[in-house]
Amino acid sequence: MSTDNSTDGDDSGGHCATPDSDGEVAEEIAIISFGRKLDTAEEIKAGIGAGYDTVDIIEYHGDVFAEHWGEYDCFVGLMASGIAMRKTAPLLDDKWDDPAIVVVDEELTWAIPITGGHHGANQVANDLAELGAVPAMTTASEAAGKQGVESKAKALDTHVVNGDSTVATNLAVLNENLGPVARLDGPRAVLVGDDVTVLKRNGDEGVVLGTGTVSGVDADQVRDAWDAALADCGLTLDDVDFVATGTRKEGEEGLYEAAQEADLGVVLFEKATLEEFEGPSPSRSKELIGWPGIAEASAIAGGRDHDLLREKERFDDAVTVAVGR
User: Which domain holds residue 58?
Assistant: First the structure.
């Protein structure tokens, strides 16, 4: 399989339990707050709590981070960033194992990931945006508006096997020369270098929902279209690996909202990749703007066999869906 760009949809707000890049899920959050700020801590818990298994509020004391280190996926420090940095710096060991840390001010103006951006902190900061805080992302790929390999891993429901490789591959993302993610099915042995990131699937493989939409599509329209297409194949959303579409649909809120509600990642394919996997049905998109039909091409590109289980169908004159396998 080849993918060029991907996203887990977190930029639309609201947490879905998608695997982090190391294969874990950011489920357990501790809000560390000074006593005078506990009302704000309760506001944060009420605002994001439904998206996590645990959101605890712990009153700050000098050893609070050390005392609870390893118990939570992410600490939300309701405090100055300098305090959180000084108290957690001696505890940090390895970015693949350390908890994520986000600091937020009492007025909920800024949400700043300071460690573990790709391991839950960016996710939590985005969720805090629902309360009005501005997520201040400093991880290089997000700051540049690009999707790093960790984000690709999330969208594909995979985890990174060799974490040290991501320095080189994310630099390639920034320089726009990473190339597509190549799919290798086994059994086979693969020899890779230090600058090759290996992604391993988290579960059994399912189908791919190739999806094209009109601008401004509603999330309910997208979900209804998916349900109808899958039902025709005797499947449900539980049988879906991920949603595939073209980079032209990046930022389409209705599509991302529907994927988030279904706990699915969204993989974005570049035009060049879609041209390699053009579907059998005629496409008005190709006639009008030179793009191959997004639904079928992305379903074929994303499928493990690069094949269609169901050709495209247009629903509600707004959503086109094809099912890839």
Answer: 7-142
